[in-house]
Amino acid sequence: MLHTRTRNPSPVPDVNWDSGLKEMNETWKGAVGCLGVAIFFIMTIGIIYWQVVDQPNKNWILKGRFSGLIWERSTQTLVVQTLSENKTFAEIDIGNFPVMEQPFVKNLCWLNKTEFCYTWDSVTELKISLDHSFSAGTECYSITWTPIHCDVKLKDCFSMTDVSWYGGATSSAQQWPMNNVNMPLQPFIINNLKSSPSAYGSVLERYFLGSTGIAVLISPDVPVSVSIERNKSFCVETPPSTDMSPLQYTVCVGETIQSVHQEMGSLLYEKQRRLPNTEILWMPLWKHYGISDSAAKLERELRSFHNKLRRLGLGECLIAIDEHSTMLLSNKDHKLTVNQGEKSRRQRRDPYLLKNLNLLITTSPYASVNSEQFQMYLREDKENYWLSLHSKLDGSLSPVLTKWKGQFSVRLNITSKPAIDWYLNTVTSLKNKLGAEYVAFEGVEGNTFIEQSMQPSGGLEDDHYTGFLASLVDKLGNSTIITASTRSNYLPIFVQMSPLHSDWSYTGLKGIIPSVLHYSLLGYNYFIPDAIGGTFSGEFLTDEELFIRWLQIVTFLPVMSFNTPPWVCCDDWVLNLTRQYIQKHQDFVIPLLTKYADEWLSLGTPIYRPVWWISPNDPLAFMVDDEFLIGDEVLVAPITKQGDVHRDIFLPGSSYQWVDMKTSQVFDGGTLLKNYRCSLLEIPVFVKKTS
Ligand SMILES: *[C@@H]1O[C@H](CO)[C@@H](O)[C@H](O)[C@H]1NC(C)=O
Ligand SMILES: *[C@@H]1O[C@H](CO)[C@@H](O)[C@H](O)[C@H]1NC(C)=O
Ligand SMILES: *[C@@H]1O[C@H](CO)[C@@H](O)[C@H](O)[C@H]1NC(C)=O
Ligand SMILES: *[C@@H]1O[C@H](CO)[C@@H](O)[C@H](O)[C@H]1NC(C)=O
Ligand SMILES: *[C@@H]1O[C@H](CO)[C@@H](O)[C@H](O)[C@H]1NC(C)=O
Ligand SMILES: *[C@@H]1O[C@H](CO)[C@@H](O)[C@H](O)[C@H]1NC(C)=O
């Protein structure tokens, strides 16, 4: 009963309640729906706003102790800055792959404070890691791009705005800094500048140094191409390839350009440094241009040249003969015949007398196919001593033909053991036969396969030929000279600078100091400058002023090398002047070079230094390309403009005092001497005041 009573009292039928609830529910649901849509819209707009408008254009992606990396979204650049944001080391444009909208990048390796990772979908992966293995003042970021597809071209560009850059490769009009150079995109390998003037030349390292205190070291193992756009940027890229090679480099920053180079430059020579035979510094080098067609005639010429140099009191000299003359002499049968009657006459032509001539002989790893030697090599089964291609049909070898000195030639296979043993023996016996201490190797540069548009293989990619040849030449002792070099600045080898034009431009006289600074910065302190007056044209110089200004610069370089004899180009008194400068080289310059050679051996500091070495915070110092320092105690500031007898001289180092060698006047460092007077017979030299 109770049950039924409690059930009945409900006055409102269930149906009514139900329908009322239903009506209310629908209105509410509609409102909620509308609200939802509105919220959704607001959120979408908010997100879009946040993503596109409000989101900061910059964000830190990695922070070190004093520096860090900022991702700048609008320009797609990576900015290397101090944490206090008061100094920018470099801006790296990394947005050079085909993705239209750059998203907000966030670290996919966020668990690790020293790493940054990001992936651009199906294009490329980026990984940056902070490297702590350097000293406290230096911080390094190792940057690796890995393509995900084989048609991805990776390209990073380093801005040259407000940064002066040094290092990299030589060019036919050498500049210091390299900001003023234009170079089309091309493989970053050494070429012969005489035949390819718009290519990279003779001394090349994958190392760039910026005036803000930054160094860039590109990984050695992957082929890269480099372009330079004047005053704008230089770009490093890896071509698309099936190997999907990564683009990898390390960026290091420090307090000054000098301190960063001290730290990073040592990575360019990880091996024990050794000095070449410095006897050559004492001996002026005279080029002999023989056009003789017979060995006997050539010998007569050489002997009379030698006697003339003696007679004129030019001291002990070396006479350099070219490859053709070397071949001519070596082909001559020099067997000593002890024939009673003719003994004295024969001995005059005897090879043992050639020894007294102090010859510097020249050779190359090429053999002309027209030469008698080449026929002989074929007969002696040496055809596989040369760079060859395998026939796909029968596997036979055919040598790759290239042009060398105007002749179709083959090039030594530097990776073949029998070939290099044979080559070393040949050069050694040539040296002995001609009694020559010094040997110059030409034709070291260039990649035969790339020149022929072929795919290099067998370890001969990039500049490996040049590298192999340098280590091969090292086996011949410490008196060799090569015409190009990379990753071998620790070897006891001289590097011959590229031929210059006989003019006052950057392809001639004005290019000497930029080259000296470049070579020395990269660790090639033992170079032989191109002969006075330039040898590009192969003709004798006629401009007396150019001869004298050139002579004045070369006096302060390691080896004084002559092409045009002073008695050919100039008045009698110039010969006198030449003698005086040779004397000055021996009395003043060589002792300095010897002193700083020790510093180079122990610390890796360049012997020839730019003025920014001791003025690393003075913006003026970065543009000075017509002065150099020997160590940090002698400043040489030659005249490099035709007709000038005045120049401005930047005296570096605000804590230094400089003594003018001519007048003994003392000047403060960190100043600019305006209109310093200097006659044709003088070269301004300042010595650091000690005490
Ligand atoms: C930047 O700021 C730091 C600390 O705030 C200071 O030590 C440094 O000298 C500044 N550098 C420059 C270039 O102003
Ligand atoms: C971060 O990654 C680096 C390189 O992979 C590694 O050496 C380091 O130990 C990692 N650090 C942490 C905290 O996981
Ligand atoms: C490049 O910059 C230097 C120094 O700022 C300037 O002297 C030179 O004229 C510039 N060259 C060009 C082609 O703009
Ligand atoms: C060069 O080699 C010769 C002979 O091997 C040696 O006597 C000389 O000391 C070496 N010179 C240098 C600078 O190492
Ligand atoms: C060089 O010689 C080596 C050893 O004989 C051989 O394997 C290689 O294919 C040769 N390279 C070229 C480019 O001829
Ligand atoms: C050469 O120099 C010497 C002194 O060094 C001098 O006596 C001589 O007159 C000079 N000769 C010429 C032609 O200038």
UniProtKB/TrEMBL annotation:
It comes from the Eukaryota. InterPro entries: Alpha-glycosidase_related, GH, Glyco_hydro_31_C, Glyco_hydro_b. The chain crosses the membrane at residues 30-50. Pfam families: Glyco_hydro_31_3rd. Keywords: Membrane, Transmembrane, Transmembrane helix. Residues 604-689 form the Glycosyl hydrolase family 31 C-terminal domain. This is Glycosyl hydrolase family 31 C-terminal domain-containing protein. It comes from Leptobrachium leishanense (Leishan spiny toad).
